[in-house]
Amino acid sequence: MLKIILENYISWIGRLSEWTGRVASWLTTLLVVLICLDVALRYVFKEASALLPELEWHLFSLIFLIGAAYTLKHDRHVRVDVFYMRFSPRLKATINLIGALLFLLPFCLLVIDTSIPYIKASYVLQEHSADPGGLPHRYLIKGSIVVGFTLLLLQGMAMAASSLLIIIYGEPEKDRY
């Protein structure tokens, strides 16, 4: 029963992470277009505004925040694999489970918890860019920190669940989490 529940959770979160990964890839395309537009306006037409550079860094932030869970799902985060790559699947799963429980999940919870007061304050103050012509509603980009780290938390829980299944039942299915 536990195995079925964990596999269903892993599958559901995996689909969510795939979807957010596609969103991040489209945001990357949009970011490239915006940067080209910004460069053309600035250097060809000698026009500049605070709006485009701010929008660029907002998109850049969103790409990394919502793309982190996708990156974790596909095991593409930076890691020193000198020893890890030689370990058995059970030992790798044990290391992943311990790492998730001791570091990843608590860190995600810490970031989410500490971000919420800043988002609330930004919303209450209706914070906007200090630059003339900049973006309003700064709380939206601050709120994306919670969204991104919640997605990473959910994917980290799926990784921990997958690791637990490997420890208990042995070899994983391909691309389980």
Q: What proportion of the residues form beta strands (DSSP E)?
A: under 5%
Spans of 5+ residues with little confidence (pLDDT < 50)? none
Largest sheet: none
Which term fits the overall shape?
A: elongated
Overall pLDDT: 92
H/I helix tally: 4
User: SSE string, helix = H, strand = E?
Assistant: HHHH
Number of strands: 0
Keywords: Cell inner membrane, Cell membrane, Membrane, Transmembrane, Transmembrane helix, Transport
Membrane topology: Multi-pass membrane protein
InterPro entries: DctQ, TRAP_DctQ
Protein name: TRAP transporter small permease subunit
Short description:
By secondary structure, the protein is mainly alpha-helical. The protein has helices spanning 2-44, 51-73, 89-125, 138-169.
Describe this structure in words.
With 177 residues, the protein is mainly α. It has one domain. 76% of the residues lie in helices and 0% in strands. It has four helices and no strands. It has helices spanning 2-44, 51-73, 89-125, 138-169. The longest helix has 43 residues, at 2-44. The radius of gyration is 20 Å and the shape is elongated. The mean pLDDT is 92.
Which terms would index this structure?
single chain; 177 residues; 4 helices; elongated; transport; cell inner membrane
Strand-helix topology:
Layout: H1 2-44, H2 51-73, H3 89-125, H4 138-169
Helix pairs in contact: 1-2, 1-4, 2-4, 3-4
